[in-house]
Amino acid sequence: MKISVDRLFDAAGEKKEFSGEVDLSTVRRHGETLWPKPLRVEGEAKNRAGIVTLRFRVTGETLLTCDRCLKRFETAAGQEFAHTVVRSLSGEDPGDGTLVVPDGLIDLQEVVSNDLQLELAQVILCREDCRGLCPVCGADRNEVSCGCAGSDVDSRFDQTTHRR
């Protein structure tokens, strides 16, 4: 989905509303698809006092894998983003949130993909108190108590012996 903002650069007070879907089914994290279904995008591009701002909201479902227990789970995606849009920069670093569009076209699929990926947590958990897998037998500690967890802990990973 592409939107043209070329006209907005020269028309203070003008705005362009948009809505549609973006398909991010090719975006993967650790080989697994994050957004198997299209996401809904609604927003506007607006020229306020000569500065074009792009604001949009993304809604849909995100399919994640817990980093502790390796279970797949679905969560709602509903986030808002904003960017300043410029035609060009004169040798400056655009900084966070600035989109450079020399042809006046914004590829929303690329922008939404980048924004959502940057918002993903470094460690993804199915729930805050996820107990993960047993390092000995591999049992899911959220479902069973195997009795062997902690009996064979590798001393290199023991937090009490490596304090700095």
What is the strand tally? 9
- pLDDT < 50 runs, ≥5 residues: none
| Percent in helix | under 10%
Distance between the termini: 51 Å
Q: How many individual helices?
A: 1
Rg: 22 Å
Strand order of the largest sheet: 2-5-6-7-8
Strand content: 35-45%
Estimated structural class: mainly beta
The description of the largest β-sheet is: 5 strands, mixed
- Rounded mean pLDDT score: 85
N-to-C series of helices and strands: EEEEEEEEEH
Overview of this protein structure:
This protein is mainly beta. The chain contains 1 helix and 9 strands, in the order βββββββββα. The chain is elongated, with a radius of gyration of 22 Å. Helix content is 7%, strand content 37%. The protein has one helix at 108-119, and strands at residues 2-4, 15-22, 28-29, 32-33, 39-48, 51-65, 72-86, 98-100, 105-107.
